[in-house]
Amino acid sequence: MAAIDLKGVVKRFGSITAVDGLDLEVPRGICLGLLGPNGAGKSTTMRILTGQAIADEGEIRVLDHELPREAKEARAEMGVVPQLDNLDIDVTVEDNLAVFARLYRVKDVQGAVERGLDLARLQARRRDEVDKLSGGMRRRLLLARGLVHEPPLMLLDEPTVGLDPQIRTELWSLIDALRSRGTTILMSTHYIEEAERLADEVAVMAHGKIVARGRPSELIAQHAGRETAEVYAPPDRLAEVRANAEEHGLRVRPAGPAIAIVGAERATDGAVPPDAIRRAASLEDVFVMLTGEEAE
Amino acid sequence: MRRLEPAAITGVMSREVANFRTFWKATTFSSVLEPIIYLLAFGVGLGSTIVNKVNGLDYVEFVGTGMVATAVIFSSALPAMFGTFVKHRFQNTYDAILAAPVDVEELVTAEMLWIGIRAGFYGCFPLLVAMAFGLDPAPGMLLVPFYCLITALAFAAFGIAVAGTVSKIDQFSYVTTLFVTPLFLVAGTFFPIDQLPEGLQIAAELNPLHHLVELVRHASFGLEATDVLRVAVLIALATALWRLAVQRMTARLID
């Protein structure tokens, strides 16, 4: 039985359909990256999984619990790392952990606190108020708080959003260690590199539904081929190159100040200009082709 | 999992206790000093110059016992309104709690209980201060913490329900001006309501804070048979407002 199983889930907010017939299965023991642009419905999906949003249609099972009826039971077995920092900033690091150990009914609260402090590498700062911690320390504490009851399933909602690269790498190590221990992870992100580095499988979400799913290498092969050619030039010339490539049956996407010709290995003579920079196709190519949004 | 699990409620309350440990000194300071200032201004100032006795009581005794209600409403309704709104809108605290095995009913119940207990405790301070100003202790006063608790629970639920209804924090001004201040002024704290026009007397009898004022005065100067009815009214009000608070917060917190 999958850790998470969503079938035909729909969630509307007035006239806006945030989640639109979502089918998603997350097998136990894998890290699934839910990759999508802002507004794709990732956070709403996360809230549906914690019972904080009630789906208008569809079937939802989390760890064999049927939601929303058994949302509380499901929450008892999952940990959540939110997108927004919601630690109690005036309270000490250890009290933040202790409160959540109690909320999760952990019998050995002190033991859970010590484990959390070790995981977040905050033993030396245990009696400091959270307000005095750096951004990276607070993110590590958020992760440790979500793990205080050693859940078999973790929901990570944009776990490194807004963090600088060094802190992001630090958190990736922690998440990677978690994955190695066999914890099932559903991680929403709009960072391509994060999904590539951590996820066993990636599901690309756009307009409230999954538009592609697979291992990163499979998705790249299926949607972007082997090679991408990037052309940097003034706008007029980029328009000409684009038109020419499309005439030759190639797909072209914007890439910041450049354009990227996807599947360039299939290009016939003259389809790709000689000054183009050829590189291996990436998950970013897949993301932009499928969602129409620039990647981060 | 069943409804209203004690572990969920005490878990949420433990968060409140952890936070309260960071600001209890300021709360205690104001809870002690405010009744002293009021008693000096009204009890001693007014009592020694304009008003001597009210309904057979020294004015200090009259105000000292009445001020319990003032302390209760200001330490329950206002923290419930502002605290709930800030935790929801600005600190995202409730998102964190509701991601754990806690539901909205347990969250609201825990918040209510914590505010109720805290206001019940601090509500007794004016009585203690009044004793320093000459109020004689009485065995009936042992009931005052209970009276304060049930009234504070009602006002905490009221505050939470309001916080679950307004869309902007500025809108609390309407609530304090239209509800809290009139309730506070027409409770019989600073002047007896039996000297008011008949319409206002009836309005005051509907004021839960007036019931608390009467209960505290009776506990201090002689219990009355109607006290049971007043307690029943306050319990019924707290129960009704609790359900309203749960309903409003569910609408606010669950999409």
Strands, helices and their partners?
The complex is a heterodimer of chains A (296) and B (255).
Chain A (H helix, E strand, L loop, with lengths): L3 E10 L2 E11 L4 E5 L6 H8 L7 E6 L2 E3 L3 H6 L1 E4 L11 H11 L5 H11 L15 H12 L6 E5 L7 H16 L3 E6 L2 H7 L2 E6 L2 E6 L1 H9 L2 E6 L2 H13 L3 E5 L2 E5 L14 E4 L2 H9 L5
Parallel strand pairs in A: 3-8, 3-9, 6-7, 7-8
Antiparallel strand pairs in A: 1-2, 1-4, 4-5, 9-10, 11-13, 11-14, 12-13
Chain B lengths: L5 H15 L3 H26 L3 E2 L2 E2 H16 L2 H14 L2 H6 L5 H20 L1 H8 L11 H20 L8 H14 L12 H8 L2 H14 L5 H27 L2
Antiparallel strand pairs in B: 1-2
Helix pairs in contact in B: 1-6, 2-3, 2-7, 3-6, 3-7, 3-8, 3-11, 4-8, 6-8, 6-12, 8-11, 8-12, 11-12
Number of helices of chain A: 10
Low-confidence stretches of chain B: none
Regarding quaternary structure, what we see is heterodimer
Number of domains of chain B: 1
Largest sheet of chain A: 6 strands, mixed
The proportion of strand residues of chain B reads under 5%
How many distinct beta strands of chain B? 2
Mean pLDDT of chain A: 90
CATH class of the largest domain in chain A: Alpha Beta
Number of domains of chain A: 2
Briefly note the structural class of the backbone of chain B: mainly alpha
H/E element string of chain B?
HHEEHHHHHHHHHH
Describe this structure in words.
The complex is a heterodimer of chains A (296) and B (255). Chain A is an alpha/beta fold and 296 residues long. Chain A is 34% helix and 28% strand. Chain A has two domains: 27-47 and 82-215, Rossmann fold (3-Layer(aba) Sandwich), CATH 3.40.50; 226-280. Chain A is built from ten helices and 14 strands. Chain A has a six-stranded mixed β-sheet with strand order 6-7-8-3-9-10, with helices on both faces. A four-stranded antiparallel β-sheet of chain A has the order 2-1-4-5. In chain A, α5 (135-146) packs parallel to α6. The longest helix of chain A is centred in the middle third of the chain and has 16 residues, at 165-180. Chain A is globular. Chain A starts with a strand and ends in a 5-residue tail after the last helix. The model of chain A has no long low-confidence stretch (mean pLDDT 90). Chain B has 255 residues and is mainly α. Chain B has one domain. Chain B is 74% helix and 2% strand. In chain B, α2 (24-49) crosses α7 and α11 packs antiparallel against α12 (227-253). Chain B is elongated and about 60 Å long. The two termini of chain B are 22 Å apart. The chains are: A alpha/beta (296), B mainly alpha (255). Chain A binds chain B through residues 11, 13, 44, 47, 50-54, 71-73, 75-76, 80, 82, 84-88, 90-92, 95-96, 98-100, 102-105, 129, and chain B through 1, 7-8, 10-12, 14-15, 18-19, 21-23, 91-93, 95-103, 253-255.
